[in-house]
Write a structure and sequence with these properties.
Number of strands: 19
Helix content: 25-40%
Strand order of the largest sheet: 8-9-14-15-16-17-18-19
Largest sheet: 8 strands, parallel, barrel
Structural class: alpha/beta
Amino acid sequence: MKYNLLIILSFIVLSCSNKYDKYKSINHTIDDYNIIPKPSNLQILNGSFKIDDNTVVYSDSVLNNETEYLIQTIKNITNFSISSLDKNFNNTHIINLELTDTINSEEGYVLDIAYDRIDIKAKTTKGAFYAIETLKQLILNSSLNSESQEYLIPALHIKDEPRFSHRGMMLDTGRYFYDVEFIKQFIDLIAVHKMNIFHWHLTEDQGWRIEIKKYPKLTEVGAWRNGTEIGRTPGTKSDNIKHGGFYSQDQIKDIINYAKKKHITIIPEIDMPGHNGAAIASYPFLSCFPDEVTPMNDNIISEKTKELLNSGVKKVVQESWGIKSDVLCAGKESTYTFYENVLAEVADLFPSEYIHIGGDECLKDNWKRCPNCQHLIEEKDLKGEEELQSYFINHMSAFLKRKGKKIIGWDEILEGQVTPEATVMSWRGVKGGIQAAKQGQNVIMTPREPYYLDYYQVADTLNEPLTVGGRGPNTVKDIYLFNPLPKELTETESKNILGIQGNLWTEYIATPNYAEYMLLPRMTAISEVAWYSGDNKKDYEEFLKRLNKFEALYSKMGVNYAKHVFE
């Protein structure tokens, strides 16, 4: 049966080959090629490849995932149901996917488009996937430009590879819980931008979002808050609406598998020793002072939480934003045991070589008056509370190393004597990244200005939804023109910069629709900085021309986005 199918297809292709000759000499200009992120090298050629029912995809079995993705992509855009074969029966009107050692980069690819065939070559399945993402944009652009309803892909030669190995996006699900459907939508956005890291912020003062089987109260209690402050911190009052949710380990496994098909690594973040109000509400012994009532703004306490406090409950999940003083007790052995058990489950669940353990915004007021913390400082001959935090981070790093994992931490981990094996995520500007890179540590640049996407995106905020005030705006132009390789670094030191990341914190971003609005199109600008080499080649106006075409992809995906730069 399979042999007969090959014969039939061969006759079809032979009979149709002549009708594609008319597409052989079509001329093109640079305006026909609007690809984001911009390819490293693009050569314009004559001719166009027409996608129709006679198009056939050929690939090796190792590329089955990518082949299925390509076929589905073409179906979604053109409505053509093209065929796939595991043997190249003819060279005419075929899309050929193959792996080859002639490509040097692990994530690089070569894309050749002629009037009668398309060839995708890559060293790995990742590179093939990114080539398909490029082809997707060209197909979508052809559908926009075609008056004849033909899908004509302009001929070209692309040799492409990414600038950085870490091209990430962070989503904070601790402040607001987002369902699995949106998490997958977020992963889709990462994929179409040729980014490869999903940094998943899972724990906060206001909510614990990951099932830990050894400690069920983390989700029974810590995943829910009884209200949320109204307005920007300090808010006016509580909305008295219960909010929460968490991801079961089965759901997380499903999301990990979904991301894997799109060549995206998920790095989970379990923040410590600060930002742990939800964990402390679940297991009060984690606090330096379990019998002290959770410090809260009186205006923000919900009616339900007031009832709990009046009934004798001491620790509750936070209902307002900002940095909280009730942090993990770093002086008690039980705290270390607890978080080793938490991290053991996280390490077994996530295949990523990295686990992010936070380390940011840890107020040390409680440590200064805690007998257990002060005893440990004296016992270990530490130079105060800053080194106590380093001791805590290094302990968890050593534990994770035994589990085969490495740690990432926010740049506050540099304030003591953190292990040189830690990767530093520089968020308070680039200063921490420069320091770490000069020390020989790996660095991910994610400075809040301009890479925090919860900041306003335009200067005129009158008609913008409420978000973080006092900083920014972080505009598309700011993001696009940012250079993640500071001039203070030598060429050798710059090699310690693994890449960049955009962060979406969600204190004021309660819905997927609002999250998409804050992400796009700024995420698109980040993707080009992460992928395209050469800051001296940046042309913002030229980027905007390509962005106007890329807008069609937002519409195809059905996502919300800010319109400022398109007006």
